[in-house]
Amino acid sequence: MLPWRRNSSNERNGPSHSNEYFLQRLLARARRRELYTMLPNDVWVDGIFPHLSIRDIIRVRQVSKVLYELTHTPILWKNILRSVHFPLPPLPPTERYSYASLSSFETERLIVRGLNLDANWCGRKPTLECFEHNPVEAYHEVLSMKMVPGGHHMFASVRDFEENRYALVLFMMDHRVYNGYPIAKVATQSKAYHIQAKYMNYKGEMGIMVAYVRREPAYKADRMANVNVSEFSEAHDIDYPVPVRYEVVVEHINLKAISILEDPVHAPGSSEYREHVRTLDPPFRHVTSLSTNTSVDFLDLAEMNGDPYVFFGKRNQEIVQKNLTTRLVSRIHMPPLTVIAPPARAATTIHAMRVLSDQHQIIVVRTTTRVEPSPAELYLAGLEQPTAQNFDTFANLPADQDFLNLQEFAEDDPNHDDLGEDLEDEDLIDQDLADQGPANEDQPVKQHFTLEIYDLPVDGTTSNDFPQYIEMPTPSAMRSVCISEYISPKTYYHPSLLRKLSQHIEMPTISIYCIHEDPWQLLHLRLKPRRMPLHPPPPPPIPVDENGEPVEGAWPPLPSPPPPVGETIQRYSLTSDGFDYRPIQFSGEQDRALHIFPGATRCLLMGTMMDDRSVHPVPVSFFSYADMDIPTQDDIDADENWPYDKEQHEAAAAERAWIDAAYRQRGRSCPIRSLHPPLAYMFEDGVIASAWDEWSGRLCMVPAAEPQKIYVFEYAHAPREDVHGNRLPLPVHDVDVCKFFSDVIKDSAELQYLIQLTIEGVSETEGMPTHSVVAERLETLLGRRHGWNTMKWVKKSTITYRTYMPWSFADGIFLSMHDSSSHFVAVIDRLPTRGSEDGSRTCIELTGLKYAPAKIAHDATQDLLAFITRSDRVDDDPTEWYYLDLHLRSLRTGAAHPLAQMPRVECRFRTCHEHWTYQLRICGDFLALLRCDPEPYGDDNSYLRGWHWKAGDYFLYIESPDTTGTFPSFSDLAFLTPDVLLLSNPFPRGQIEVLTMGYKHLLTLQLPDYVSGWDIYLEAMTISCSAIADSHTSADAPPDDRIVSVTFQVILDEVPEASYICSTEISFRAQTVFHLLAAHGRHPPVVLPAATRPIVVPWDEWGPDGCRMFTLNRELRIDHDNRRIQRATHGMRAVRTLIGAPDRAQVLDFNITRHMGTSGAADPDAPSAELITEPITFEPIGVYQHEVVTKLPYAAIDIPNSEAYCGYLLDGQRLLGIKHRVENQPDQEIDVFVF
């Protein structure tokens, strides 16, 4: 029978141990419309939602208002953010977009954009997010635009309408309420074009670096005559009426200033907002200017070794780079790569360039055209001797002409650089071909395409090095070439967010797009990053014989394993495995010209008429081009070499499979699709400017009919808000969710099991083998919880131990020591489980011991038995020094542990007293030994020592009182994780010290203030919790929660007849400690100076809401030899003896979720769990200075027949009752109850 099927026998006989009863109650509550109160919010957010896909979370959101709000919890989307494997759009690297500052709306929008943008763009019908177009008001005539990668900011070159004045305007494009609006403006002397902008650091300030080119007349007389060369298009080659000078200008705007402008007090565009902006300092900061007399056709920005650089390519086959910090200028002279025999000549043209900052190289695309001479040129060539031609525009300027007053300019602007004399310029290819006339019409144009990679020169030098390059013949002349944007992954996000996503960030593919005409063809070239070790491993050794000769027929040595991802780099190269290209033919529309908006994988194409040569071309079609090629064999082989890349790619494909299917992906044969709805009708008069950002899927266009308006089109379907900041769509009304959850839960046994694990607050069922099926683990988990909640165990057995010898209980093993006349024996009782027999007993002889073990501890998962004995060593003065030996043995054989580097450690202590006590703790690879004085205000020192027992290294050594007086004394120790330790410190007022490895004192948790004086003091203070041996925890993902119990005795002397003893226990959740560490910025791993003092957390800050305090039986004092009897804890459960009733005990469960909707009430013979949510108040009579109130809720279940036992132990599967000792009997019995 399937576990979710209805069974009438269960209705008659009460609840069973399967999940059927849980499902019935779940559906019953759904019918009563109480589903949302059945589980606490943190169970949904922390337990259920993380196991659902993004698709399922979005579907759950549509169920009701309650789930709508829960699915918008910030921590939910931040947890998803840390686990996604697909690329995400970049964010501005500011505090505003740090990991801690991201809101749930912004985090969700980031994830959803990255998830569905590629699916929509690659779909059969790429569509806009919405068909409503709200233009952004620019308040100026827009001339050109450039989007900063990520789409959050955009620069626009603008002009005033009435006067011939130009400026550069920064727009905020992703405001959550106001969409886009201008936030900053800087005047330019002429029109800015070829704009480039990136997030970059300049002199320690993170901001946006923007570079642009401007031009103006070279002669002062022409400038005075108001000759305006800015009005000419930069997209065409123009024969200017006067000589022209070009200038590259670089500006920087601080992101802090941008943040102030983006979060205004007043609405953007209002008069109040403009007045507010006028009171702020100018955000733009001029960085540098570079002048040249040769046309600057290409511009790029990059950051290398922490310094910003500007690069620009000139028409004379030269690339100039400038370090914006040191101001050193370097040049790259690009040599001709194609040799053409005279009398023909080569005309070489740069088409595109892109800087690869991480590998200090630059990509350049050039074409070389063979130009045959005309008959007239051949005749003249025979009459004249060849002379050097000077194509420098300003070579023949009269000496008395003022060349833009460069000397005055340099004095006024220290950041300006005159690049001086330029190299010889080349005529334009098209012009050369046109000048040949009809005599050259029948000769074919032979053009060669070269993709080149140059090494960047050292600052201040000139490079003439030969590049790496690939040469390909082209079928026809190229119309345009574009290279996709390259930004280094380290500049994607704020450092705090980058640390969360760094393992999922890959270098982008570099895509190069080339448009050919006749036939109309798109050539797509790709440079793929390939991972390689940062330090190449040495070659494997070759087997040789005794003479040093290679052994024939020997097996080749195995390749070395790949290094960690942190020791690798990714590089682009022109090798066959990292470079490929694909020509794409178009079947129709051969009369149209394509304009490329490049992207690494998402490219936008705009089609115009072939004969449209106007300044503002009229678009007739828009296309989405998607890289639909499947991974090549080289890609597959590369993933096989690097397993983490393979795992990354497979996980990303799995996460996106459902949304790719929902958008119906186009086939490989159809990489180009028309956008929907068509946009051409909005631009019938032409397009002035446009910008495309492939990361966010945002397209911005300015129509010629409305040059002051920017239309924004979104192709990433992401959450939106209205003008009031409300999410769209608004929450739906509550609906009957019975059918929804019935279908979701009953069809997935795994989901049912995950829900039950979340209710239990654990990651897996304790004691169940990993190979067991889900249904078996689910039934065991439900049956075990039913047994604990009703105190109905399934079996009972009895074991014995020697009362005067030490013992240890952990991992389902009760280990005790027995002695004989000549040796010592470790008795290992493997306790029974729900599905096993009655357990087993094994005896192991411990050889080589002269003295009896004083304290023992064990870890069955690591086959470790640790114990201490008195040492054989005797010092010269035995009254001064005392020695102990720490032994590490195998739990199976009793011999020295094979992994222990310190099988026997000698510990030296000052003095020796009989009342000393020892505590030995194991947590994973770490072991700690505490020696303390249990007497009130004892004069002896306390020692705490910790070792990494596998490596044999000390990680902790504390002696109290220490030199700082921080620890006067301590009485007990507990591990939370290997990174976090708790120390109980009863003096001077009772407090809990929180330490980490290497003795980093992090926090001091104070206990309630009690009345001070000689008549009251704390006796020994004990602490108990079950440790988690996983050190891979963080503030965002703490380990499973557990309960921590601290027991102490307040003793009041000078009370008539006898001292009054108040035994008190305080219980709190381990998560409280982790939350306090995170709140104070001290969650391990944390780097603190050696002299850093701990943060003192007063009781009122953490205790009242996070603790529950009890008064124990006044007749009982703490047993220092067997402390765990009185303070049994495991997970979220603890056992306590009721005050005034020494024979009555209860199990306290601080995971109250397990008792909401439990089945205990259906069993009339079972004790019912009492849910305690009311605060407990302790009056300050004689003990405390103030009233003490604690509120931590818990459930209490009475233990049947508790009068037969003097103490208890427990773990997740068992309750152990320690019977009263029989006089004159050395052995004591323990009853084991299995649930």
UniProtKB/TrEMBL annotation:
Domain F-box: 39-82
Coiled coil feature spans: none
A Pfam family annotated for this UniProt entry: F-box-like
InterPro entries, sorted: F-box-like_dom_sf, F-box_dom
Name of this chain's protein: F-box domain-containing protein
Source species: Dentipellis fragilis
Organism lineage string: Eukaryota, Fungi, Dikarya, Basidiomycota, Agaricomycotina
